[in-house]
Predict the structure.
Amino acid sequence: MGCNCNGPVNSWYDWAHQMPANILDLVAMAQLGAMPGLFQNSTTFNTPPVAWTASGIAYSGEPVVTALATDSGLATNFANQYNFSREQRNQSALLAPPLQKVIFARAGTQWENLITLAFGGVTYNDLQLSFRDNAGTRGDAQGTIPVISWTGSFTGNQQLGLVFKQPGQVSLMLRAINAAGDWSAFEMEIIIKQMLQ
């Protein structure tokens, strides 16, 4: 899943003319903290009125998988076994910087992937999640890009909960606007695996 290109992409001219991929083709549910995400066709995902700033957002800790069927002891046990036997994120300080954005997740609508994001001392009021490659397009016929959005006041550590419909390797982008009006983007490269249990 990337730009969902409908033709050959040989340059940025071609990329800009591609249709953006729909984030709902991959994500069945998304929440940040206790706040559910809201699907919208955004006109602001990739069009800041100011220059982009460096992202202050980072992963914090190890992502975990939880069973959505909390009434099923077996499903909870499968989630616990999954977390026990798999490293979802390499937290070594010696890991090459380009690999620090890579995490693993579990596909299936019965599993929620909890990814803790560190916002630090900065307060973010407007967050949008979509495919990274959508930011290279001009949007659809209306100039919009499908995103999952949150508005509010987000600071410190926040858990991003994602339920993935299917496996794959994707690059997602969390576009963030802080209280000072600075725009930044945090990239997450997620390898989503389909497991039997």
Notes: The chain is about 10% helix and 40% strand.
